[in-house]
Amino acid sequence: MTKRELVEKVRERLQDYPLKDVAFAVDCMLEGMKEALVRGERIELRNFGVFSVRSRDSRMGRNPKTDKEVYIPTRRAPSFKVGRELKKIVDYGKDSHGL
Description:
two-stranded antiparallel ribbon, 3-stranded antiparallel beta sheet, HU Protein, Chain A, 27% strand, 2 domains, alpha+beta
């Protein structure tokens, strides 16, 4: 699903609002999530999952082209852990297990 498709899905539920306003709301939500992750904050969306930032230690790697060792510095990377309810819905379908 693309961002545009997401905006259209939200618009289907909020038919009283202009498409431009729905797109702005989705943009604001995504921008707020990005800003929180940059600050190192955890984002928990109940029944969906948790977005967080994890640190990866520096290490020695290998360049596959030259087979030479290269230093890989410490870095931060976004991470997502799927929630239990979403996992069940994806695995069994929405109608299974009383969901």
